[in-house]
Amino acid sequence: MIISFDIGGTAIKGGIARSETDIVPLGRRPTPRDDFAAFVETLRGIIAETGEQPNGIALSIAGVVDPDTQRLICANIPCIHDRTLGADLEAELGLPVLIANDADCFAMAEAGLGAGRGHRIVFGAILGTGVGGGLVADGRLVNEAGGFAGEWGHGPIIASAAGNPPVAIPAYACGCGQKGCVDTVGGARGLERLHKTLHDLDLASEEIIAQWRHGEEKATRTLDVYVDLVASPLALTINITGATIVPVGGGLSNVQPLLAELDHAVRARILRKFDRPLVVRSECRIEPGLIGAALLGLKAGTAS
């Protein structure tokens, strides 16, 4: 039995996993962001609630484990940032610990139980507040030892002009320290940034989408530019990885017409031609981080 955790900046959610088809969510507790002892006690308390001794625990975290140092990069939870968190938790809890990035866990969940079932190579893309992703090949997460594979949201590759007719696009500064990353335009905040640049209007992404769906001219222009900007780097990612399905999660994945537009643009730009949708809505709608962490933990337990 594995206990999986989805560690967010606001809440910690737990789940019991006995098999791939038997994953049961537990309750949630507030995340102690600045107190590592309290963070450990929160995990310990959730484990104790089960009344059982697990074989190990698996964590989905909005951060990245450096594969060389095993230190965690996690900006939104200071008490675990820059720690060798796996080793620290193993010492505190006396259990084997597996840690994975939340986008990697999303990809793992989709490959195992979602839209990626039956596909050998699955690229899970996140279009939420920002942009993320994870890569699964032959049922195994490429980042099993930690690392940055799947992070298509970063790198200075955004086109300097986009849309029909083309319009100049600034190289927006990204939180990663670079300029012109997909993350600066591809998520909800990026959509809002584009709308501001194109029309000097401050609108929430939900309102831009609503206006677009009603045929409003300015919103239609923004979405034309958005799809043009995002489709090319996603097509390149698919060419490089050989993915045959791209489940999409995050808030923008709920806008099916947008996914259809993106899918059409991506399939027109890749080498391999598909006569079926390639960029699709994810199917694990509830706690994919929890499911993905559970699947990783179960696989690790089987391997050991």
Structure write-up:
- The chain has helices spanning 36-50, 85-93, 102-113, 183-186, 188-199, 205-213, 217-241, 256-267, 288-303; strands spanning 2-7, 11-19, 22-30, 56-61, 64-65, 72-73, 97-101, 121-127, 131-137, 140-141, 161-162, 167-168, 246-249, 279-281.
- With 304 residues, the chain is an alpha/beta fold.
- It has a 5-stranded mixed β-sheet with strand order 3-2-1-4-7, with helices on both faces.
- β1 and β2 form a beta hairpin.
- The protein is globular.
- The model has no long low-confidence stretch (mean pLDDT 94).
- Its EC number is 2.7.1.59.
- GO terms for molecular function: ATP binding; metal ion binding; N-acetylglucosamine kinase activity.
- This is N-acetylglucosamine kinase.
- Pfam families: ROK.
Give a brief description:
The protein is of the alpha/beta class.
The spatial strand order of the largest sheet comes to 3-2-1-4-7
- Characterize the largest beta sheet: strand count, sense, and whether it forms a barrel: 5 strands, mixed
How many strand units? Answer: 14
Structural class: alpha/beta
- The portion of residues assigned to helices is 25-40%
The dominant shape is globular
In percent, how much strand structure appears in the residues? 15-25%
Provide mean pLDDT, rounded.
94
- The helix tally amounts to 9
N- to C-terminal separation?
Answer: 13 Å
In terms of per-residue confidence, which ranges show pLDDT below 50 for 5 or more consecutive residues? Answer: none
Cα-atom radius of gyration: 20 Å
Order of helices and strands: EEEHEEEHEHEEEEEHHHHEHEH
